[in-house]
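Hi V.,

You were right to ask for the full record rather than a summary. Here it is.
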Amino acid sequence: MKRIEKIEELAEALGRAAHVKLYGAGLKLASFMEMITELKMPLRAECVLVSSARGNPSMVFGIPVEGVSEAVFHDMDVILLTMSERFVADAEENLARRGVTRNIYSIDYAMVDAIPYQKVFESVKPFVQSRLWLSGDRNLPVKTDENYVWSCWWQGEENAPELVKKCWESQRKRIPEGTKHVIITWDNYRNYMELPEYVVEKAKRGSLLPAHLADIVRCILLYKYGGIWLDATVYMTDRLPEACFSYEILTRSTGERIYCTDVSWVTWFLGGRKGQELYRFLMEAFFYYLKEYDKILHYYMIDFLIAIACNEIEGIGETFQKIPVNNQNAAELQKYLAEAYDRELYRTCTEGGFLQKLTYKGGGYAENSLYRYLMGANMLDADRKRGGT
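Predicted structure:
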């Protein structure tokens, strides 16, 4: 297997390929396709390979999705591994079982992410170089020993989808006793933070997406109060360890290197102690950016800002490196929401962790589906059979 680290190497491989197959259908593929579009590179991909068709769509980016075991391979195939580093070895083994050992290329995602990273960096360069976040005086840390778990649904808890309500129920059941669980809404956000009016105004007229506003809010709350941020679609499968509140910075870590750094994180599970410089930097960087620009440059802006912090602020990257690998399977369960509940599959997806990132975007779930199992439909049916209400 060869590794592609430069755009020129990728162009050369694509230029001589009679058949191109992409292997990997997740976020890494999306980043790769974004780069291809940005650079206007010709890509004639005949399929997207996945290790198992189960839980995957039939098509992504207009390209058919095929399981490795069902795909037809040619001698002149070029196969690009558009996946996280930790899956590469398994992908090689899967291909070898089909007799495919040539023209396999892993992708260096530092190359892929370098383009949006540089754009985001240039947009906040004066802010970074002048260390302007150190002069901000908004949302200063409060004097409290309370432990908080934060989440957000702008329209209010009563208006949230069924899955979101079930996720909050699981969070409340499984956080340590005495922990405050707070859901931020349009009605209560002023009780917890100060948002500049120009930020609120952009949000209300739609130039700032609700997801980006939530990104800003999580940074404010973690800087001001500390604690744990859980997205509204995070389902707790086990108790949240009390030790989570003792970390300077905490997140789900897979031990990979992402967004041009040497560490990994997710923004749907973030935590740390109040006053942490990372969250002050992120908060003030968003405020600076939205004063200069009307719209957020990149959907994953917060991730690139975290990467900039890791690379530009002494100690941030090292603090991330201290986070133990945890919840590696946390994105697995959502793939199977529409499938029939399988006890062994559920156990495999949830073992070794205490949370799962789900999605409320979907519908038409059968009564025996994993979705209905999580929503408690199976328990309701059992109650009815017993004569319960």
